[in-house]
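Long-time lurker. I teach an intro course on protein structure, and each term I like to show students one example going from raw sequence to a predicted 3D structure in token notation. This year I'd like something fresh instead of my usual example. Would anyone be willing to generate the tokens for the chain below so I can use it in lecture? Attribution to the forum is fine with me.
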Amino acid sequence: MSRDPVEKFIKLLRKSPSGAVFNPWWQVDKQNDIGRNAPAIRRKQLRAYLRKRLGKAKFAVIGEAVGYRGGHFSGIPMTSERILLGKLKDGRIEPKQIFAGISLRGIHSIGAAAC
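-- Reply from a regular --
Happy to contribute to a lecture. Here you go:
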């Protein structure tokens, strides 16, 4: 078992309830995902997001669902696709604040082997 707390958390996400629940980190959405490697991309993005904050954040807010506006797409809970894609420009959060340290251009080329 990995001693890395982020990796341990990512592996725990695999144990989602069965039934009418979609697990974006381990399941493929055939209608909306870009390909079979989409869950691996989402895991890589969540991993990078959490590692950037490990040891720095004082609190972690755990939500019941990843969010109807973007967690399904990005793998990062409680985000908005409109913000991530730069389509919501009202002076609030910008994509660069969410993906600090991650190349936005590289997100589209991440393969399952990299995760």
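Some talking points for your students: Residues 5-114 form one domain. The chain is about 35% helix and 0% strand.
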